[in-house]
Design brief:
Blueprint: E1 11-15, H1 20-31, E2 35-40, H2 48-55, E3 59-62, H3 68-77, H4 79-82, E4 87-90, H5 113-140, E5 146-151, H6 173-180, H7 182-193, E6 198-205, H8 214-223, H9 232-243, E7 254-257
Parallel strand pairs: 1-2, 1-4, 2-3, 4-5, 5-6, 6-7
Length: 264
C-alpha cells in the first residue's frame, strides 16, 4: 500500500506563520494532527489569528529572522520546544503592495539602496539564517528525514511583466533580486547536506493574492495561460506534498505552481 502523503511524526517549524499562506498551512497541518511551531515578526496579539492558534496550544514566537544572534539564541535556548523538530518551511518574506509609497513607479536606475537592503535582509538573509541554524540543529541532533522547504517566486525564474501593472509601473527590483536567489540557495543546501539526511526543496508559487482589484484580475487573466489567480488550497496541496514522505526522493528541486505563467 502506498503511503505517499503520510504526515506522521512530523514536527514542523513555519516562518511567516501569521501570513496568508502561513495561516492556512498551519490550520491544515493541525487538522492532520501535526505538531507545529509558528514564527513571525511583530505579531498582533490582539488579532483573531493569534487568538485562534494560541487556543490550539500552538507554540508561537515573535522573532526578527534577519537578526542572526536572536535566531541563534532561539535555537540554543528553546530545546524543549524544538525537541524532535524535523521540518522547516520558510514562508517569511516582505512583498511590497502596489500602493507602497509609489515604489512601483520608481525606475530601476533610480531605485534606492535602502529598499534593496530591506528586502535582501528580509527575503534572502532571513532564509539563509534559518537554513544555517536548521542545518546545525539537524546535524547536532542526528535528525532522520530532516526537511527544509524554501519559498521562492515566479520572479526567480522570469522577470516581472510591465503589462500586468499600470502605466510606467512594474514590480520593484528589490523583491525580484531577493527572491531570485532562493532556488540556487536551495540547490546549494541540497547538494551539501543530502548525505547527512537533510533534504531541501523549493516551492515556486504565483498569484496568491488577497483581495485583488477587478482591474488587476482582468489584466492578469489575459496574461496567464490558466486565466486566473491561484487559490490558497492550490498552494496547500503542493506544500503538503513537499512536507510529506511522498517527496522523499526530491532534493534540490523547484516545484513550480504558477498556472503556466513561466511556460511562455
Amino acid at each position: 500500500m502506498f503511503k505517499t502523503f503520510a504526515l506522521k511524526n512530523k514536527k514542523i517549524l513555519i516562518t511567516g506563520a501569521m501570513g496568508l499562506i502561513g495561516r492556512s498551512l498551519c490550520k491544515s497541518l493541525l487538522m492532520n494532527g501535526n505538531e507545529i511551531i509558528m514564527i513571525d515578526f511583530k505579531i498582533d496579539k490582539k488579532s483573531k489569528h493569534f487568538k485562534y492558534f494560541r487556543n490550539k496550544n500552538t507554540k508561537i514566537f515573535d522573532i526578527d529572522l534577519s537578526n542572526k544572534n536572536k535566531l541563534a539564541k532561539f535555537f540554543k535556548e528553546k530545546k524543549k520546544e524544538l525537541k524532535d523538530l524535523n521540518t522547516i518551511v520558510n514562508l517569511a518574506a516582505v512583498d511590497r503592495k502596489i500602493d507602497s509609497k509609489n515604489i512601483f513607479d520608481i525606475n530601476f536606475h533610480d531605485f534606492k539602496t535602502k529598499f534593496l537592503n530591506q528586502s535582501i535582509d528580509n527575503n534572502l538573509m532571513s532564509v539563509v539564517n534559518v537554513c544555517q541554524e536548521a542545518c546545525k540543529f539537524f546535524l547536532k541532533n542526528k535528525t532522520k528525514k530532516a526537511n527544509i522547504i524554501n519559498i521562492a517566486s515566479t520572479y526567480s525564474l522570469v522577470s516581472s511583466n510591465p503589462n500586468l501593472y499600470n502605466k510606467n509601473q512594474n514590480k520593484p527590483i528589490d523583491y525580484i533580486i531577493s527572491k531570485g536567489s532562493i532556488p540556487i540557495l536551495t540547490k546549494y543546501i541540497a547538494t551539501n547536506y543530502s548525505k547527512q539526511n537533510i533534504r531541501c526543496n523549493c516551492l515556486i508559487p504565483h498569484a496568491v493574492i488577497e483581495n485583488p482589484s477587478k482591474k488587476f484580475l482582468a489584466k492578469f487573466s489575459k496574461l496567464s495561460p490558466i486565466g486566473r489567480t491561484c487559490s490558497i488550497q492550490e498552494i496547500m496541496d503542493p506544500l503538503i506534498f513537499l512536507i510529506s514522505d511522498g517527496s522523499s526522493y526530491m532534493t534540490g528541486s523547484s516545484l513550480v505552481v504558477d498556472g503556466g505563467w513561466t511556460a511562455w
